[in-house]
Structure prediction request, 132 residues.
Amino acid sequence: MNFEAILKEVTFTAVRSSGAGGQHVNKVSSKIQLRWEVSKSSCFSEVEKERILLKVASLINEEGVLRISSQNSRSQFSNKKDAIQKFFTILENAFKEPKKRVATKVPKAVKEKRLQSKKRISELKNSRKKNF
Prediction:
């Protein structure tokens, strides 16, 4: 992945952060919003773009824009670094192949334990019956 080329396609916006912070929060725009249009990217092939759209569909709006925001720090610079880190983590996870599930047999001991439990409950219920 060519990180510099991808970062050239990203736009950053500084917005006023929400939450506690006193007067400082009302004066400074420290929250960073990262926006990236998946369909207009020249760094990925059409197949790769489709994969990204499928894997991170919950983060992409109806216009096909991936939005990530960061407001952890009071510093705009650290929030920008954090947003970039989140962005690349999301992209790496989109291309990660899921592990194949290896089918396993139910162990004999587990089957036996289940049958013993059923037998014990059956005997308990039978002992409650009135014998005529």
Summary: The radius of gyration is 27 Å. Residues 126 and 132 are 13 Å apart (CA to CA). The mean pLDDT is 87.
